[in-house]
Amino acid sequence: MPKHKSKSPNGLTKKSKCSRTFVLNPGLSQNASKYEGIFKEKKNYKDEFVSVKSSPFPTCQLFDLTEDTFLEELKEELHGLELHEKDNDLYRFHQSSELKAVSLPYLQEFKTTLMEKVKPLVSKMTGIELDDRLALFHARYSRGDYLLCHDDELEGRRVAFILYLVPADWGHADGGALQLFSTDADGNPGKVVDSIYPVNNSFVYFEVSPVSFHQVAEILSDKTRLSLGGWFHGTTVARPEKPLRLPDTGSSYIDISEDIFMSVVNPMYLNLYTQSQIQERFEETSEIKLPDFFLLDKFQSICDKLKSMEDWKVEGPPIRRRVESKHDGFEESACVKDAFDVMRSDAMCLLLSNLTGLRLHPLAPKDEDESEEESSDATPNPRCKGSIRRWAQGNYTLVCDDDLGQAQFALDARICFNVHNWEEVIGGQTVYIARNEDDVLIKCEPENNNLNLVYRDKESLKFVKYVNSMISTNSAPFHDFEFTYFE
After folding, report:
1. pLDDT in tens, 303-326
2. Fewest Cβ atoms closer than 10 Å to its Cβ: which of 24, 351, 415, 447?
3. Are 216 and 147 in contact (CB under 8 A)?
């Protein structure tokens, strides 16, 4: 006979009652005394019920947490929950609202057992005193979804946990691993040193701490990674202060010959009428795209040279970025060096002043709205910074509130190379948002030989969206010149 179902007030289909109970794996209860304080022992341990790893920070995986029949009923119930798209610099996946107040029968049974039986076991194993606060969410990760490096630290969070609800045949090739980072002497994450792959009906947890840096690796298959996850809470622990990061304010422009400049830049942008038209549009929108900015033959030569370049430096830390870049060391590639020198040249900054109306050069005209007093007090100090970057799967930059380099008025410039068959879903866009908000102000897609110019104020931040595995359709990584110019 089919079970009777009814509609809850929020529109979810729910069963009138829970016909099965959450039975915690008896092996966990029977061995609880043996597991007590195991995190403090700082050594690896494994039996048929648990797996404890001590490095890079203590983590535990409980196997076969409950009966499969209960889990299937729970999954069916969760299927009716409304999930919201979560998409910003740090992640892309779908998640429910907070489930604390949701009273679906199987979910409620899970929450009750979680707090009455699982939490005490976790407290014994970690040695952490936990209170009655619980944060719980349901998440769905599909192909291309991910959650980048973070530490979960927030007021009161003491233990992070996740119950995997994945297909039984989930394997390494499907991705979605919980990846754990090492930590350097300054408290920054280093590299991934261990991975915990999803196993259906397993429960993974770890202490939230200044070194609990982790991420969810990209989903690489068409399978769906479902989970229930959240945090147990307790008394907030004082955290050490991290050193203040000083901004890179760039350096002065360089002088180059007129021949080099003219061999790189499309002469149409040197036309005074064209410059005035571009400036008028830029002053209205604070951003513009200039197509075919480099001469075509020079652009193609740069593309070819960038493809063959080796020894790219991976820049981090991953809580801020993962970028392959070069700031120098390309002297043997004349076309690349010439173009890079043009971007940081005195002539380029004068050209950008004419294209944007910004005072990026001592010869740039003064702002008509600027008072005489402001004009006399302002001593021009134009400067710039830049790099060449290689964008492959797994590369990104993140928004960081303590990035003082983004707390200044500046003109950002980006020109891309070796972009083929590009689609928005791949990532790699430069995205601008308002500080402390997720709403997108401007999004610049990677396009060959288009110079994107964006004027950024102190209340806007930028990041480059994570480049996912779908870049394989692009046949190879793409590259860019990225520069920031300061008045």
Report:
1. 999 999 989 999 999 999 999 998
2. 447
3. yes
